[in-house]
Amino acid sequence: MALALVALVVVSICPGSFHGVSAVSVSVTATPNINPSPAPLSTAAREFLESHNQARAQVGVAPLIWSENLANATSRLVRYQRINKGCEFANLTSGKYGANQSWGSGGVAVTPRMAVDSWVNEKNYYHHSNNSCEPNHMCGVYTQVVWRKSLELGCGQAFCNKDQATLTICFYNPPGNYVGESPY
Ligand SMILES: *[C@@H]1O[C@H](CO)[C@@H](O)[C@H](O)[C@H]1NC(C)=O
Ligand SMILES: *[C@@H]1O[C@H](CO)[C@@H](O)[C@H](O)[C@H]1NC(C)=O
Ligand SMILES: *[C@@H]1O[C@H](CO)[C@@H](O)[C@H](O)[C@H]1NC(C)=O
Question: CDD domains in the record, alphabetically (predicted)?
Answer without folding.
Answer: CAP_PR-1
